[in-house]
């Protein structure tokens, strides 16, 4: 592999701000003196013909002991560091002027805690670039171990050709946080200018697999060398600044959506925590449909009839409300944790959690930390599958913040020809109400006694009946908001007031949003 970054530590320098002591040792005892900066540049030319150098490197980063840099900043406001860079620039131009080829000489002086007193670290090479004073950033590069928490690595400038990213102890020009691979591995980013997309290559090539997912907009890098506990991986994102980068093509089921929280209000306040008198009577249960046996005209026994096909209702996503609408209830945060199978977790460690707080900010949380996110987005906290977060459609955005698509929808069968109801008071499809628990909702003063379903879902939200044309939907509560989404999860309509004479017809395969639940109704 070519050496993209020349990386050397110079020692025994009494004054780390003395440019002449860093550049060249005094005297002519060439065989006794240690190599300094001028010797390193001369021995490692940028281009050469035979043994003769034809071009030299012109961008050099100097790292001094952090304590020396701090003292300089405190006492002289960084004047000694600026003088050091200017003097080395002049020495560089004087000694290598005929090998610059029109390149500008640039030096940068920074501090590092990894050096002992009297040591200086220098970096130069093909993948070392220092921007001009007025040069604007073209790309920002960041990495992640779980696709949720992203750590910035470096900028890339329009005139910067190469960037080499690696871990501590390697020869990279930039260090990636949480680098999971060996020190000899590195990511090489090739920039051919603003009009060409950046190219990502791994070094060494045969040790890694690097794939770009246009839907999520990042690269997934995996080591081909098995390690204890599985092959390590790293996600790499290159985001263009200024004009927005082209939006990746999304599959039909991933288009943008919006959603909104539903709550009854009493005197201008949410009524989700208010008790509801029931006169001491037991809650009204949904009727169980009668058997739908086919007619036994052939004289066969009852045990041989074929049951009719049943329709199916599936929970495909969980809607995150805007908690600011429910401030009077004391709700401070709603958290949806997903385990390593990307199923909603009822206990144990979570691979990723999504949180919406009282200010309606959306966060992703993993073992790496917590970071604010925007929808739409795709996350792959585990290798096998991805989880999608969709934005709320404008027509629903006053109630909902986002929608978390389930990797494995939860389904239940329903018979046709009978009318059922859905809500907190209905046992029908109760298995789909995954948030019917206080563990997902955090309230003020640590109170955690009310089911999350009490935000946005009425006791009797809506009724539905399967027919040959689709599903007849009836709104049962004036405070319940219902939204119709098509088979691609795109907004269609808001379902109005209950009207038993003219129920709303929901086509087969379309979705209904009620409370936290996005339900798909299939034939």
Outline the low-pLDDT stretches.
Answer: 243-309
Averaging pLDDT over every residue, what do you get? 84
For the biggest sheet, the summary is:
8 strands, antiparallel
- Counting DSSP E segments of at least 2 residues, the number of strands comes to 34
Question: Helicity level, as a percent range?
Answer: under 10%
Beta strand %: 25-35%
Structure description:
There is one protein chain. The protein has 523 residues and is mainly beta. The chain has four helices and 34 strands. It has helices at 19-23, 37-43, 66-76, 79-96; strands spanning 6-10, 47-49, 52-55, 59-65, 106-112, 120-124, 139-144, 151-156, 162-166, 174-175, 186-190, 199-203, 208-213, 218-223, 233-240, 265-266, 269-270, 311-321, 331-338, 352-357, 362-366, 369-372, 377-379, 387-391, 400-414, 419-422, 441-443, 462-466, 471-475, 482-485, 491-495, 504-506, 510-514, 517-522. An eight-stranded antiparallel sheet has the order 23-24-25-18-34-33-30-31, with no helix packed on it. Strands 8-7-15-14-13 form a five-stranded antiparallel sheet, with no helix packed on it. A hairpin with an 8-residue loop joins strand 11 and strand 12. The longest helix is centred in the N-terminal third of the chain and has 18 residues, at 79-96. The protein is elongated. The two termini are 59 Å apart. Residues 243-309 have low confidence and may be disordered.
């Amino acid at each position: 592999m070519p050496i993209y970054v020349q990386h050397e530590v110079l020692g025994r320098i009494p004054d780390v701000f003395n440019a002449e002591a860093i550049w060249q040792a005094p005297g002519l005892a060439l065989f006794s003196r240690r190599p300094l900066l001028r010797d390193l540049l001369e021995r490692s030319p940028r281009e050469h013909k035979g043994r003769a150098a034809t071009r030299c490197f012109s961008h050099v980063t100097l790292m001094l002991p952090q304590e020396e840099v701090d003292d300089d900043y405190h006492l002289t406001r960084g004047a000694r560091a600026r003088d050091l860079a200017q003097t080395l620039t002049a020495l560089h131009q004087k000694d290598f002027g005929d090998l610059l080829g029109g390149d500008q000489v640039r030096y940068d002086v920074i501090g590092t805690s990894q050096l002992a007193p009297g040591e200086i670290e220098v970096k130069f090479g093909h993948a070392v670039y220092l921007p001009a004073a007025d040069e604007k950033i073209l790309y920002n590069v960041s990495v992640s171990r779980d696709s949720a928490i992203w750590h910035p690595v470096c900028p890339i400038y329009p005139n910067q050709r190469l960037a080499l990213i690696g871990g501590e102890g390697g020869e990279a020009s930039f260090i990636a946080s949480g680098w999971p691979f060996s020190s000899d591995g590195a990511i090489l980013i090739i920039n051919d200018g603003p009009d060409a997309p950046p190219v990502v290559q791994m070094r060494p090539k045969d040790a890694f697999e690097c794939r770009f997912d246009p839907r999520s907009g990042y690269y997934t890098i995996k080591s081909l060398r098995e390690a204890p506990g599985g092959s390590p991986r790293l996600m790499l994102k290159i985001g263009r600044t200024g004009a927005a980068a082209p939006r990746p093509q999304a599959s039909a089921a991933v288009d943008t959506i919006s959603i909104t929280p539903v709550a009854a209000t009493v005197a201008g306040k949410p009524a989700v925590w208010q008790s509801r008198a029931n006169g001491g009577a037991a809650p009204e249960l949904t009727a169980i449909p009668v058997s739908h046996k086919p007619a036994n005209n052939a004289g066969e026994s009852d045990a041989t009839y074929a049951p009719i096909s049943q329709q199916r209702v599936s929970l495909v996503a969980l809607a995150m409300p805007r908690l600011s609408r429910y401030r009077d209830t004391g709700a401070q945060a709603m958290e949806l944790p997903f385990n390593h199978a990307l199923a909603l977790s009822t206990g144990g460690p979570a691979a990723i959690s999504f949180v919406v707080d009282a200010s309606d900010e959306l966060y992703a949380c993993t073992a790496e930390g917590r970071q604010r996110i925007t929808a739409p987005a795709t996350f792959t906290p585990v290798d096998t599958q991805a989880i999608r977060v969709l934005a709320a459609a404008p027509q629903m955005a006053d109630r909902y913040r986002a929608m978390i698509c389930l990797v494995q929808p939860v389904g239940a069968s329903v018979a046709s020809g009978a009318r059922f109801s859905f809500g907190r008071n209905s046992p029908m499809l109760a298995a789909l109400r995954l948030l019917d628990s206080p563990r997902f909702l955090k309230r003020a003063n640590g109170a955690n006694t009310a089911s999350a379903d009490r935000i946005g879902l009425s006791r009797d939200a809506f009724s539905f009946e399967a027919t040959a044309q689709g599903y007849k939907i009836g709104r049962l509560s004036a405070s319940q908001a219902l939204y119709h989404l098509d088979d691609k999860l795109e907004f269609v309509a808001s379902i109005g007031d209950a009207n038993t004479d003219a129920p709303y017809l929901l086509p087969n395969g379309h979705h209904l949003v009620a409370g936290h639940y996005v339900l798909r109704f299939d034939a």
